[in-house]
Design goal:
The complex is a heterotrimer.
Chain A (H helix, E strand, L loop, with lengths): L1 H24 L3 H5 L4 H26 L3 H31 L8 H32 L5 H26 L2
Chain B lengths: L1 H10 L11 H6 L4 H31 L13 H37 L7 H20 L22 H4 L4 H29 L12 H32 L13 H35 L6 H14 L15 H29 L8 H24 L1 H7 L3 H31 L5 H28 L17 H34 L59
Helix pairs in contact in B: 3-4, 3-5, 3-16, 4-7, 4-8, 4-9, 4-14, 5-7, 7-8, 8-9, 8-10, 9-12, 9-14, 10-11, 11-12, 12-14, 12-15, 14-15, 15-16
Chain C lengths: L11 H6 L6 H20 L6 H23 L7 H25 L10 H15 L12 H4 L26
Chain lengths: 170, 572, 171
């Protein structure tokens, strides 16, 4: 899993470096950036941090061989993922309705691409956790809780950096 | 026996080998690393044939512009672009990488480190399935309206991002999607190789006891993982530019086409070392076995391979010297590019040193291995001219560049691969390939290859530019001698392609009717020769223990000139 | 040591000996700390000072990431080389930045300018400073915001950026 995360660092790192370079260069982007919804971003950061807590508690439960508790925490984590996606959909719908689409200008292109790529990883993580949780309920393969947990924390870390880049730096 | 237990447990349904597996389970959906390795090999070779056919088509066009190509038809400029693009893309991503890394890596690594399978067999199967899907997607791109992508394998915007320019509105995103999926497949596969090497080695196998080819494939996987990220991000950006109309690489929208070039080549340069290192590993194995001598300087080779890998991240903009990059950066990249030739040359010299004073057996694999060293050196030396940014101003985008990289790529992807195939065929299929036909194939490959590309150095210096549909459109290039050499190159290609038929007949015939081979036909040391030929599911009846390094050949005082790694030291 | 099917090391004694055996409240406290940091980073912009905002926003992001990595992902007890590998990947990304920034981040040099950059920023400012009031309806309208292709050699529309582009010899 760590090797997978290593390569993911270069994927997101590459994308965000491109964004940062252009953001620094084009001062007027701050006017577009002013329209990102900091409240939604903050809620989502809170949601993801909390879901990371649930993920590590799931790992904790798995270490103590408590499959059912681990599965419960995994589903709470998945709940966090779903909340994140719901908030994001509302946020994006609002932005698109105001005319800020992926093609509006390059700031928005980066915004939707970076957040979208992240969102795909959220969906993948939630799916993986669901699959692992079914085994956990039967007490099998508890070591996988740690592995999906590590993936999930990584998804959280990406968001921790996306948040200031897209929402705070205005 | 914990590794045995873990891989066994991981095998799940095809566990213990006691019950008969269905054809589908055994060959199509297998998790056995040997089957997966052969699947990658067959798919890769099939794609390589497609890439070679593309080269046939466009070389015929270059030699006889405007004439209908036998077996194909007339080559229009669009078709020319598509052929050139897909030849490059297929050869690198669907031939060189799968065969060198995925096929040889999957087949050899567990055998050579003495375990019974990869540590993640199902992930292994998944990576092949994704790879296969990517190959299918690429082939499908030829059959959509307007055909396959025609924007060159480097896919620079705005040609690549604007369907009005490249005229392949469906082929372009399909190509991009296929490349992205292939990257994912190799990322997953790489995880397997690295983790298996780290965790599943035979007891007693210390760091410097690992066969060189295994190291090389693992180092290559690490390089791949560290470099492909920005390009995957860039591919997403290009895909959106192509399909959604975003402006990531459009200057009028605040984007920058040079950004794509950087994203691409940041990966593109380490990529060539990703394919080079496994090829050098294969050559190291073949050389030591048939020179009956240990590798001249194992640690040097290993650490210069690592150094090459690290340095490869600092040289990429030499592909962009004339693209309008900051000239100060060009200075820096010139220095680093010239520097990187040093470790590679050192490795080549170590190989030559391995041959010095050795009892050389000129078997077919050995012939290919020696040809690799000679021809790769020519490729490397011509790279020096291109690494110097001043000279590159003239050479960039000419056939000189093309000849340089074919002089490196063909030894890597063709010559070294053949060395590996002839060497390990007895292990994979339990039978020898026909030696006489192998030698004929060797001469018919190694010699005409020079006939193709040496003339192209010359035409490149004379001014032939790459990716030009018809050089006769340029009056200075319509000279008789240039026309002659272009035709010479094409005829050499035809000869070389013709000799490959011998290889295929030999390969498939020997698979079923070749002379039976024992477990260790070459009297080699490494663990794969301990297993039966071909190895059964689970590889070894009892897992071997490692007592020494992999290249203990011609050790004084021993009765035989080899000393297998799994043989315990004699009790004195 | 035992290896599970996925090759991942699992050994019940492993966590205790390496201090992974924390009570659940340990993680909850860390979570609370993360939330406090989140609040600070949101409050930062309200103080108005740009540099301070950057420090709080990105500095805190870095700290939060390290907390999640070290404690939630248990990197503090994992084998050392995992840190080295992850740092190496970050260095690779940094290398990419160093090589690319010189080209992508400039719009003028000793003998050249990127005129589209000037035009882009000027037009952009005009389009967006007046833009928030209109509720333009969605992707079909993007053409009104897309800028025309700028041919090489065009000058910036106002002299505010200072330099005019050098006249090319042929058009």
């Amino acid at each position: 899993m760590w090797w997978l995360l290593g390569s993911e660092i270069t994927i997101f790192g590459g994308l965000l470096i491109c964004y940062i370079m252009m953001r620094i260069m084009y001062a007027p982007w701050s006017e577009a950036a002013a329209h990102t919804n900091t409240l939604a971003g903050s809620i989502n950061t809170f949601v993801l941090l909390t879901s990371s807590l649930f993920a590590v508690l799931a790992h904790h439960a798995a270490e103590h061989k408590n499959g059912k508790l681990a599965a419960l925490y995994l589903w709470l984590t998945i709940g966090g993922a779903l909340t994140f996606l719901v908030v994001k959909s509302i946020e994006w719908t609002n932005e698109i309705r105001h005319g800020y689409t992926i093609t509006s200008n390059t700031f928005w292109s980066f915004y939707y691409t970076a957040a979208g790529l992240h969102g795909l990883h959220v969906i993948a993580g939630a799916t993986a956790m669901a699959i692992v949780s079914f085994d956990c309920l039967r007490g099998k393969n508890l070591q996988r809780v740690e592995i999906v947990g590590i993936y999930w924390h990584f998804v959280d870390i990406i968001w921790i950096f996306l948040f200031p880049l897209l929402y705070i730096a205005k | 026996m914990t590794t045995h237990a873990s891989a066994d447990h991981a095998h799940g349904a095809d566990n213990h080998g006691h019950h008969e597996l269905t054809f589908l389970q055994k060959y199509v959906f297998s998790t056995d690393h040997k089957v997966i390795g052969l699947q990658y090999f067959m798919t890769g070779v099939f794609m390589g044939v497609l890439g070679a056919l593309a080269s046939y088509v466009f070389r015929m066009q270059m030699a006889f512009p405007g004439a209908s190509v036998p077996g194909f038809g007339l080559v229009t400029p669009q078709i020319y672009n598509q052929m050139v693009t897909n030849h490059g893309t297929i050869m690198i991503f669907w031939f060189a990488m799968p065969v060198l890394i995925a096929a040889f890596g999957n087949y050899l690594i567990p055998l050579m480190i003495g375990c019974d399978d990869m540590v993640f067999p199902r992930l292994n199967r998944l990576s092949y399935q994704i790879f296969l899907f990517s190959a299918v997607l690429l082939i499908a791109s030829f059959f959509v309206p307007y055909g396959g992508f025609g924007g060159a394998w480097t896919s620079y915007p705005p040609l690549a991002s604007n369907p009005v320019y490249n005229q392949t509105p469906y082929g372009a995103p399909m190509w991009l999607g296929a490349v992205a999926l292939e990257f994912v497949a190799f990322l997953l596969g790489g995880i397997n190789f690295i983790t298996t090497l780290m965790n599943a080695r035979a007891p007693g196998m210390k760091m410097y006891d690992i066969p060189m080819v295994v190291w090389m494939i693992v180092i290559a996987s690490i390089l791949f993982m560290a470099s492909v990220g920005p390009l995957i991000a860039g591919a997403a950006m290009l895909l959106f530019d192509q399909t959604l109309g975003t402006g990531f690489f459009d200057p009028a929208r605040g984007g920058d086409p040079l950004l794509w070039e950087h994203l691409f080549w940041f990966f593109g340069h380490p990529e060539v070392y990703v394919v080079l290192l496994p090829a050098m590993g294969i050559v190291a194995e073949v050389l030591t076995v048939f020179a009956r001598k240990k590798l001249f300087a194992y640690r040097t080779v290993l650490w210069t391979a690592v150094a090459t890998g690290v340095l490869s991240f600092f040289v990429w903009a030499h592909h962009q010297f004339v693209a309008g990059i900051d000239p100060r950066m060009a200075n820096i990249f010139t220095v680093t590019t010239l520097l990187i030739s040093v470790p590679i040359t050192e490795m080549s010299f170590v190989y030559i040193g391995t041959l010095y004073g050795a009892s050389i057996q000129l078997s077919t694999p050995m012939l290919f291995a020696i040809a690799f060293i000679v021809e790769f050196l020519i490729g490397g030396v011509t790279g020096i001219f291109l690494g110097a940014s001043g000279a590159d101003i003239y050479f960039h985008d000419t056939y000189f560049v093309l000849a340089h990289f074919h002089y490196t790529f063909v030894p890597i992807a063709v010559i070294a691969v053949f060395a590996g195939v002839y060497h390990w065929f007895p292990k994979m299929f339990g039978r020898y390939m026909n030696d006489t036909w192998g030698r004929i194939h060797f001469w018919g490959t190694a010699v005409p290859f020079n006939g193709i590309f040496i003339p192209l150095f010359y035409t490149g210096m004379a001014g032939d530019h790459r990716r030009t549909f018809d050089h006769l459109n340029f009056p200075d290039l319509a000279r008789a001698d240039l026309i002659f050499w272009r035709q010479f190159a094409t005829v050499s290609l035809l000869i070389m392609l013709g000799f490959q038929v011998i290889f295929f007949i030999n390969f498939f015939y020997s698979m079923f009717r070749g002379k039976k081979a024992p477990a260790n036909p070459w009297n080699a040391n490494t663990f794969e020769w301990v297993a039966a030929s071909p190895p059964p599911h689970g590889n070894f009846p009892t897992l071997p223990h490692c007592y020494r390094g992999p290249y203990e050949y011609s050790v004084p005082g021993r009765a035989t000139d080899f000393w297998p790694q799994n043989e315990p030291a004699p009790k004195t | 040591m035992s290896q599970a099917a996925d090759g991942h090391h699992v050994n019940p004694k492993h966590e205790q000996s390496h201090g992974m055996d924390h009570p659940a409240s340990y993680y909850v406290k860390l979570w609370a700390l993360l939330l406090v940091l989140l609040v600070i980073s949101i409050a930062g912009p309200m103080l108005g000072h740009k540099v301070l905002t950057m420090i709080t926003a990105f500095g805190i992001a870095g700290v939060k990431a390290l907390i999640v990595a070290a404690f939630f992902m248990h990197l503090n007890v994992e084998k050392r080389f995992v840190w080295y590998m992850l740092v190496t990947m970050l260095l690779a990304v940094l290398m990419f930045f160093l090589g690319t920034a010189a080209d992508v981040m400039k719009y003028e040099g000793a003998h050249w300018t990127k005129p589209s950059a000037y035009l882009y920023t000027e037009e952009f400012k005009k389009a967006f400073s007046g833009g928030e009031e209109h509720d333009s309806h969605d992707a079909e309208d993007e053409d009104s915001k897309a800028l025309p292709y700028v041919p090489y050699g065009a000058k910036a529309t106002n002299g505010a950026m200072g330099h005019s582009s050098p006249k090319p010899e042929h058009h």
